[in-house]
Amino acid sequence: MKIVVCIKQVPDTNEVRLDPVTGTLIRDGVPSIINPDDKSGLEAALVLKEKYNAHVSVLTMGPPQADLALREALAMGADEAILLTDRAFAGADTWATSLTLAKALEKMEYDVIITGRQAIDGDTAQVGPEIAEHMKIPHVSYANGVDKDGDSLIIKRMFEEGYHKIKVKMPCLITALTEMNTPRYMSVGKIYDAYREKEVKVMTFEDLDIAKEEIGLKGSPTKVKKSFTKGAKTAGKLYNDLDEKEAAKVIVEKLKEKFII
Amino acid sequence: MDFTITKEQILLQQLYKEFTEREVKPLAAEIDEEERFPIETVEKMQKYGMMGIPIPKKYGGEGGDNLSYAMLVEELSKACATTGVVLSAHTSLCAAPIYEFGTEEQKQKYLLDLASGKKLGAFGLTEANAGTDAAGQQTKAVLDGDHYVLNGSKIFITNASHADVFIVFAMTDKSKGTRGITAFILEKEFEGFTIGKKELKLGIRGSATCELIFDNVRVPKENMLGKEGKGFGIAMKTLDGGRIGIAAQALGIAQGAIDETVQYVKERKQFGRSISKFQNTQFVLADMQTRTEAARLLVYRAAFNKDNGIPYSKEAAMAKLFAAETAMWVTTQAVQLHGGYGYTREYPVERMMRDAKITEIYEGTSEVQKMVISASML
Questions:
Q1: Active-site positions of B?
Q2: CB A133 within 8 A of CB A127
Q3: Model-level pTM?
Q4: Do A191 and B12 count as a contact with CB atoms less than 8 A apart?
Q5: How large is the ipTM?
């Protein structure tokens, strides 16, 4: 069983602070982490590795610094790591990103592709399912549990009120939820191995069967019209135990206070 | 000059941070309150390869460096100084001297299990009447056939109640003074070897600090560490390395107290605003962080020297002296900035202040560090 986990290196949004003057995110000095949903996907893959002797590869598309995220994945127990990096990939939206990743995945062996549900810096939740569509394989998103059953996977697919238990034939893609598990720690020895014994393989534009126009900024149909910071809302005030008359009185007072009436 | 840490160390620090946050911090107040040895944490540290970082792989360690090891002691001590010293005594005072002075057989028999964390180590030098004056050893070792027979006792021994392997110093020839001291490797199961009274302490209360009692303990000759009469040198050399560990512990305590204080002063309001808005708070915090950063550079430099085969005795002494005094000063300021709450056990800074004090005392008092430093100058 061969599993490829797609991960993304993202700024740790817990550590991101807002510039008090401009109201924009201060990204300088913010540590980079493996996107939490992706990390849970990796953990799920590593559990399958232990249970079924699966082979786990990790793939990321990003700048050369994303090497660190791949080393972390190796230090958690992944078998191999591939960095997909090229200036030509820069500026990609979810369409171009998923297409580039799909083209890289075509060059790899896989029975299962695991991605995170969504990245904490973009929050689109589109890349995983789009990869599956490009590759014409089935996908199950929002996985909160996964196990193997013959040549299929049994997925616990979450929705608001509960979950579906879905059987899907391999090869397939699943998108993982953070809630699925607690990712394991790296270990000191595996961190050393990740740098001393293992290597991160690099793939560039040259290695993919794709045209320049289909990738990067050029291949991205999404146009960002405007970015803005959401205005801060203050907590509302709750009035309990008022009868209709008192409630109406409070509402009128408040509206007057705000000069609305 | 290069102050950047390696890529390996970036990931190691990430591991240390996650581990400390999730496994060590939640236990810190409890083990202090109950004066309980954190055995479960030791088992977890074993699992993640933290018990023998600077020992080569072939002897059960991780083949890492002393700086990476010091960074772990620092990180653990940010949340729990007890856990920091458990690791430091085990690694620096027991595994390290066996690695440096032990025979191949001793390394196979003891170091493999110590560095992989299967066994816990301790170090026994101090006696009731031999503290800073370590040469005043009363414990005697007399050769009898192919064994040495040990009689006497040691006090204030870190990890004692849970350790499996002990480095113990004893007089083999009283007439020769320091040249009559010899080091031995003892197993907890040796007949006549018992653990005595456990000390009740001001700080690091989870650390098991006990007496070791030797009543005709027969130690096989092959368990002599180094040569007969060379024990004092081994002890001093071992303590040079140990000081890097304790300096890292002090550094961690200081940084941990700063981190707690920064969080507190942002939340605490007086006179209608956060106390972080007061210049007094800002200036005290600035001093706390500056001193701690200076301590960090001294500690890392001492570890760097050890890793690169550069003499580090003076550097380790300076690091320990300065980091310990910084920890004491910083934690006192931290309590002050917390005000009355800082004096209560509701906040961790009172524990940190109690824990800081020992770093000025053990593995050579601040005064001993000054002796070592000035000796290199005069």
A1: 363
A2: no
A3: 0.91
A4: yes
A5: 0.93
